[in-house]
Design a protein that fits this description.
By secondary structure, this protein is of the alpha/beta class. It contains 25 helices and 19 strands. The strands form four sheets. It has a seven-stranded mixed β-sheet, with helices on both faces. Strands 2-3-4-6-5 form a five-stranded parallel β-sheet, with helices on both faces. It has a five-stranded mixed β-sheet with strand order 14-16-15-18-19, with helices on both faces. Helix 22 crosses helix 23.
């Protein structure tokens, strides 16, 4: 099976298929490198059209990646990719060409850099704004050990909006360690970048006078090592500094201790190779500003960069049209139900405001942005700031709703405690992508939010079992809770529940019984509520009669419902798509041990481990949370403890 695949690769990619690693690129001329880049772009388009994946960002850095691997000596030289979703070409060029068809597939290559996958992956990534900090640490380790390898951090202008990037640059400028920061500037994160930094960066390449003078200085600097003496070198640097001071107010990056170079065309191979060689020779912190186009080389992705940030796969390469079979329409996505409900409520209530950290389309807050732009805030990739900003809005009398992925809220945990919960401020956290998320894998699974939120005082925590419950929980969070509240819901389509036009207020801390039964009870929360019902049917077919409860709330816990369940059932199975440590199971065990010590309880959730990437059904089977596995495990639990 492998042989025909290898043969087809060699036919379709004659130059690229002969590259087994970066060392092979060093023998190639600029025209040959351009051909390699063209084949890489073609391969990325082909791969994502079949399997899905992060698309526009990888197409935007094709030439940059080829140039870096031509000049630098990976894996000895260390390349750190910010987020890492743009590293597909890096993987192709570092010995993984023949395996790329398994990218993001269960048991295959990861969709992000992974140290255990290749020595060329210098650092695991998945969240934004981490690359410069990691590069600084790698450089410090090199300096302490007396080595001389080079360290490069590749960061997008979207990731540069995160405060961690500035903290790292401030530190690097102080320790003056040899690190190259490549600023990949395409004016995009997933959606267009926002904020003052974006405007600052955009104004530099648009200034024609600056660019003419910069070209002169760049040409002069290229002679430094060969023709100019120390006095002339000093003069050229003073000229360069004067130009930057005139056209880049504050000389921002240089004020942080970096030498700034650019901007240059990120799709011009000759310029990139030349710049990389210049950067390699300079022994201090430096920043190379590279202008790229997200989705470069695939017109649909260039025309609609937000839509083509990532693809679920199955599209026609020529037209970009989706090739998935039509069939029965899928229910609306949870995020869409949330976004539409929030707009409905905000049109009635002028005190509701919406906040995102660079994810308007990913959270469906783009609906709010279009409908009520005056109360919509995109703060950039700055989750910590977003939470404290929300706290300020709440303190000022508004009802802020911060929509954020579960895995990204982890980054603002201190702000949630210190700035929101401690003051008991009414901030609503709409936590998207809770639970497993599929092909993006462990960096993006929302596996811990019930656990890390559980310990926070004043915080109400709820999870809907279907999309209508999500609407009602949003209404309840806004109008029935006075302090902070978190609603966690999954990625993807809902259950197909009938959506009602009007909202219903829920009793805070109140669960419900979905199926009466005896002896055995299944307690579900969120996505595991419908899974509990499926599991109950399988158990019933085997002679058991399980009760099923939708707990709805982790905090406050419905203790009256637990008392009722414990009075009827001797065995209770808690089902949650969250770590088995610290979530609903822990809360139930703690309560029942105090009030009903004779009742046996077992928790069925995500393991105390990082779950891999892949198809959702495969992941559920791996962790034992599909209905068949659950019914087997719960039956064993009941039989062992009977």
């Amino acid at each position: 099976m492998a042989a025909p695949y290898t043969t087809s690769l060699s036919q379709a990619y004659p130059l690229l298929s002969g590259i087994s690693g970066p060392e092979d690129l060093k023998k190639l001329s600029i025209p040959e490198l351009e051909r390699v880049a063209a084949e890489c772009r073609k391969r990325v388009i082909e791969l994502v059209s079949m399997n899905g994946g992060h698309f526009g960002s990888s197409l935007g850095v094709v030439e940059l990646t080829v140039a870096m691997h031509h000049v630098y000596d990976s894996p000895r030289d260390r390349i750190v990719w910010d987020v890492g979703h743009q590293a597909y070409v890096h993987k192709i060029l570092t010995g993984r060409m023949a395996e790329m068809h398994t990218n993001r597939q269960y048991g295959g290559l990861a969709g992000f850099p992974k140290r255990t996958e290749s020595p060329h992956d210098a650092f695991d990534t998945g969240h934004a704004s981490t690359s410069i900090s990691a590069a600084a640490g790698l450089a410090a380790a090199r300096d302490l050990a007396g080595r001389d390898e080079k360290v490069i951090a590749v960061i997008g202008d979207g990731s540069m909006t995160g405060g961690m990037a500035f903290e790292a640059m401030n530190h690097l400028g102080d320790i003056k360690s040899d690190v190259l920061v490549v600023l990949n500037d395409n004016q995009m994160a997933i959606s267009p970048s926002t904020g003052g930094l974006k405007n600052y960066l955009v104004n530099i390449p648009l200034n024609k006078t600056y660019n003419r003078l910069r070209k002169f200085v760049w040409d002069s600097i290229s002679l430094l090592n060969n023709e100019l003496g120390d006095t002339a070198k000093s003069t050229v640097h003073r000229i360069e500094d004067g130009i930057k001071a005139a056209f880049t107010p504050g000389a921002f990056f240089e004020a942080l201790g970096f030498r700034y170079f650019g901007p240059i065309d990120g799709h011009n191979m000759e310029q990139l190779v030349r710049a990389m060689r210049e950067m390699r020779a300079l022994p201090h912190p430096k920043l190379l500003h590279v202008i790229t186009t997200k989705g470069k080389g695939f017109k649909p992705a260039e025309d609609n960069q937000s839509k083509w940030h990532a693809s679920t796969g199955g599209f026609d390469i020529e037209t970009g049209k989706n090739l998935k079979p039509s069939g029965k329409p899928a229910p609306p996505k949870y995020q869409e139900v949330f976004g539409e409900a929030l707009v409905e409520l905000a049109l009635r209530d002028s005190t509701i405001a919406a906040i995102t950290a660079a994810m308007p389309s990913g959270t469906s807050l783009d609906l709010f942005q279009n409908a009520i732009p005056s109360r919509f805030y995109d703060v950039g990739i700055a989750e910590q700031h977003a939470v404290t900003f929300a706290a300020g809005l709440a303190a000022g009398g508004f009802k802020p709703v911060f929509a954020i992925y579960s895995t990204f809220l982890q980054r603002a945990y201190d702000q949630l405690i210190h700035d929101v919960a401690l003051q008991n401020l009414h901030v609503v956290f709409a936590i998207d992508r809770a639970g497993l998320v599929g092909e993006d894998g462990p960096t993006h699974h929302g596996a811990f939010d019930l656990s890390y939120l559980h310990a926070v005082p004043n915080l109400v925590i709820m999870a809907p079992g279907d999309e209508q419950e999500l609407r009602n929980m949003l209404y309840t969070a806004l109008y029935e809770v006075k302090g902070p509240v978190a609603i966690r819901y999954p990625r993807g389509s809902g259950t197909g529940a009938l959506l009602h036009k009007e909202f219903t207020s829920l009793q805070v801390g109140k669960g419900r019984i979905l199926r009466e039964g005896s002896s055995l009870a299944l307690l579900g929360i969120g996505t595991m509520t419908s899974r509990a019902m499926e599991t109950a049917e399988l158990l019933a077919s085997g002679g058991l009669d399980p009760m099923v409860c939708d707990m709805r709330f982790l905090k406050p816990l419905d203790e009256k419902l637990l008392d009722k369940v414990a009075s009827q059932c001797h065995h209770i199975a808690v089902l949650e798509e969250n770590s088995v440590i610290g979530g609903l199971g822990s809360a139930v065990v703690d309560y029942l041990n105090r009030r009903h010590p004779g009742v046996r309880v077992a928790t069925f959730g995500l393991p105390d481990a990082f779950v891999t990437h892949g198809d959702m059904n495969a992941l559920y089977r791996e962790v034992g949370l599909d209905a068949v596995s659950l019914s087997d495990r719960i039956r064993q639990f009941r039989d062992q403890e009977a």
